[in-house]
Amino acid sequence: SGVIVLSWYPPGMADENGEPTDDLVPVVLDHAHKYNLKVTFHIEPYKDRDDRSMYHNVKYIIDKYGSHPAFYRHKTSTGRLLPLFYVYDSYVTIPEIWANLLTVSGSQSIRNTPYDALFIALLVEERHKHDIHRSGFDGMYTYFATNGFSYGSSHHNWASLKAFCDSNNLMFIPSVGPGYIDTSIRPWNNHNTRNRVNGKYYETAFSAALLVRPEIISITSFNEWHEGTQIEKAVPKRTGQVVYLDYKPHKPNVYLELTQKWSEKYRKEQEQWLM
Predict the structure, then answer these.
(1) CATH superfamily of 3-274
(2) pTM for this structure?
(3) How far apart (Å, rounded) are the C-alpha atoms in residues 143 and 166?
(4) Kind of pairing, strands 81-82 and 38-43?
(5) How far is CA 1 from CA 15, 69, 72, 152, 175, in A?
(6) Residue closest to 119 by CA, chosen among 74, 154, 151
(7) Is the pLDDT at 117 greater than 70, yes or no?
(8) Cα–Cα distance measured from residue 166 to residue 159, given in angstroms and rounded to the nearest whole number
(9) Residue 182 C-alpha from the chain's centroid
C-alpha cells in the first residue's frame, strides 16, 4: 500500500517560511484512510531537537495518532509492527545524543517501550553512514532528488550503501525524484538543476533504486513546486513572474502514471527477491 510521508513540526512550530501544521494531521489521516493510504512522519529539524524533545514528540505522535487506521506501521523482518519515522537533517545532532534515545542502554532510551519505532536518518555524506550506525538508527534514506548533488543522492553509490546497511542490519531507503529545478527560489543553484527529460530522469532513478533491492523506496516529493520535484497533476500556469513547470507534451498526470508503472514493477520484482 502507498504511504504518505508528512513533513512534521511539533505543535505551534514551523519552518521560517511556513505555518504550524500539526493541526492538519487529523484531516490528512482521515482522507488517506478513504483512499486506503497510510501516513507517517518526516520529522523536521525544529529548534532544540535533541534526545529529550524527540522522545516527547514521538510519544505525542503515537499517543495522538497511533490508533488511527491510517497510521503507518512497518512489518520488520522479525515480524514486529512498528511506526517508522524519517528524521530530516539528523546529522546536525551528534551520534552520542541520538544514542541516548536510540540504543537500548541510552539514558533516554525509547527502545522496548510502547514508543519504540523505526528511525530513519538522512545520509548526505559517506561518513554519515558510520555516524548513523553509531547513533542507533534503524536505517538511512537519501532524500535529495538531484543525482550527483550529494554522496547519498548519487545513484552510483547506492550499491555500496546498501551493502553497508545489509552488513550492519540497517534499512537502506533510496529516494527517487522526477527532476530538480529550484532557481526560482535559489537563483545561484542552477548547477543542481536536473532536466526531467520527458520522464526519463524519474525512470532512471527508479531503475537505479530497484537494482539494489531495497525494502522501501521513497519519492521526493509529491508537491514541492518551488523545487520542481512535484509529481502531482500539472497544467500550464503562471502567476506574475513565476511560470510553473508543466508536463507538455504529456498528459497532466504523466508522473502519477509513471509512479504507478514503477510501483507495480517494484512489487513484482520484490516477490522474486523473496522467493
Answers:
(1) Glycosidases (3.20.20.80)
(2) 0.95
(3) 19
(4) unpaired
(5) 30, 13, 10, 26, 17
(6) 74
(7) yes
(8) 10
(9) 19
Cα dihedral sign for 222, 162, 191, 202?
Answer: negative
In whole angstroms, give the CA distance from residue 154 to residue 134. Answer: 23
The three three-digit cell numbers of residue 195, written as one number: 532536466
Pairing of strands 81-82, 74-75: antiparallel
Widest distance between CA atoms in the chain: 57
The three grid cell numbers given for residue 112, joined into one nine-digit string: 522496548
Which distant-in-sequence residues (6+ apart) come within 8 Å of 34 by Cβ?
none
Angle between helices 200-211 and 158-167 (to 10 degrees): 30
Beta-carbon contacts of 37 under 8 Å, excluding residues fewer than 6 positions away, are 1, 2, 3, 4, 70
C-alpha cell at 94: 551528534
Give Cβ neighbours of residue 214 (< 8 Å, ≥ 6 apart): 162, 171, 172, 173, 174
Q: Rounded to 10 degrees, what is the CA torsion of 75, 77, 79, 81?
A: -30
Q: How far, CA to CA in Å, does 221 sit from each of 94, 109, 116?
A: 27, 32, 27
Query: Could you tell me how far CA 109 lies from the centroid of its own chain?
Result: 24
pLDDT tens, residue by residue, 160-199? 999 999 999 999 999 999 999 988 889 999 998 999 999 9
Going by pLDDT thresholds of 50, 70 and 90, the confidence category of residue 37 is very high
